Amino acid sequence: MDADVITRNLEKMLDANVKGAMIPVVNSESLGGNAGRFLLNGIKYQCVGANFFYDAQTGEILSFSLTSNPPFPGAARGVFKIACETESGTYKYSAFRIIEWVPDKHASPHANKIIEQTKNVYNKVADEHAP
Asked: How many Å from the N-terminal Cα to the C-terminal Cα in the chain?
């Protein structure tokens, strides 16, 4: 069951055509700003913040959003800080990497564990497809 939730979470993170997907939200955000920069292997990456809402019990991501107001009653709110490699000011999607995430302290430990596992799988996929 947890593997199914992680798979559905990854679909929302990797497929721009899925309702509530991460990619359109990230592409609408400004680089740098509040999310800052991240240094990895001597390279400075600009970051974006991606707000998302998830089921506070299961950890299933319900939607990514530009707003911090939950579109679902009782939804937990999280934020991914994502480092982006840029090329002429555009995002190179395969190089996105989630540096950290801010969990909702009101979500269950199980739900937050699922989001953490989702983040780890996402980063593994990103590493495998990095240039």
From this structure: 33
